[in-house]
Amino acid sequence: MRLNGMPLCVRPRLVRLLVSTTFLMVVSGAPSLVAQQLETSSSLSTSAGETATLDLPDAPSAVLEAQSAQTMPPSTQPQLSNNPDAVSPNGTQQTKRILGIMPNFRSVSADTKLPPMSAKDKFIIAGKDTFDYSSFFIAGVQAGFAMNGDSYPEFHQGVKGYARYYWHTLADTVDENFMVGGLGPIVFKQDNRFYTLGHGGFRKRTVYALSRVLISRTDDGNETFNYAEIIGSGASSGLSSLYYPTKYRTWTKVGQKWLTSDIIDGANFMLKEFWPDINKAIFHTH
């Protein structure tokens, strides 16, 4: 209103002044406004990103893995244990004796893996097998059968004859146990224990047990040829021929005793494989 009352020469100057002032205000305020807008946009995008990250569902594979972990049955792989008397996951256990008489010190329950034995421990366990009270009883029974069959006529009959049969049988036991269960495993670095399979049908477990005559484990737990059994039983048979009559010191007689020893050990492995099941089924013990 007052602008109309100003002289004409003043009006253009005033207009230019107002335009210049307005332009400077806009220019000076633009950077702060743009910065404010950018900051606001950045905060909004960050917030949106966090929300998106938190709200994303789990990948399908992660869900499946979680469900599998919950429903997966317990592992049946051998568990490392320092306890030689550990009970296997199927509830069976190897006892120290079979039928309360036969030594069973070197048998390990199914699904159990024990640490390696030292050379000293191998000799000790071989000594326990050899000089256990039951060994003297079993040697007496074997000597009786041998004398009854007149296996060595040179020994004769009667008390003296039985004594000869007895000490020869006991000496054979000492040779076998220390060669196969003591010295052999030390020389060839093999585990002298019998690891029960405990799974599968009768045929599978029988084949496994009999095959332990030829297959053994190294101290590291790997399968290997059973040098301790085959070479040890051969050395034992050769050594025993030195205290038998001269006529029995032939390759044929030594070979027969060698083969017989391995067959007996195979039968022992088979008995040890099924003993935990027999013990549990008949005597209702673990």
In summary, what is this structure?
By secondary structure, the chain is mainly α.
Helix fraction, binned, reads 55-70%
For the largest beta-sheet, the strand count, sense and barrel status come to: 3 strands, antiparallel
Strand content is: 5-15%
- Roughly what is the average pLDDT, rounded to an integer? 79
Radius of gyration: 44 Å
Structural domain count: 2
Query: In what order do the strands lie side by side in the largest sheet?
Result: 6-8-9
Note the quaternary state here.
single chain
Please report the number of helical segments: 8
* N-to-C order of helices and strands: HHEEEEEHHHEEHEEHH
Alpha-carbon distance between the two ends: 114 Å
Shape: globular
Q: How does the helix and strand content classify structurally? A: mainly alpha
Low-confidence stretches: 1-12, 21-76
Number of strands: 9
Question: Could you list some keywords that capture this structure?
Answer:
mainly alpha; 286 residues; globular; 2 domains; 3-stranded antiparallel β-sheet; disordered N terminus; 8 helices
Structure overview:
The chain has helices at 10-55, 60-71, 119-131, 133-148, 158-187, 202-211, 227-240, 251-282; strands spanning 79-80, 97-98, 102-103, 107-108, 112-113, 190-191, 194-195, 215-218, 223-225. It is mainly alpha-helical. The chain folds into two domains: 2-71; 81-282, no CATH class. Helix 7 packs across helix 8. The termini are far apart. Mean pLDDT is 79; it is low at 1-12 and 21-76.
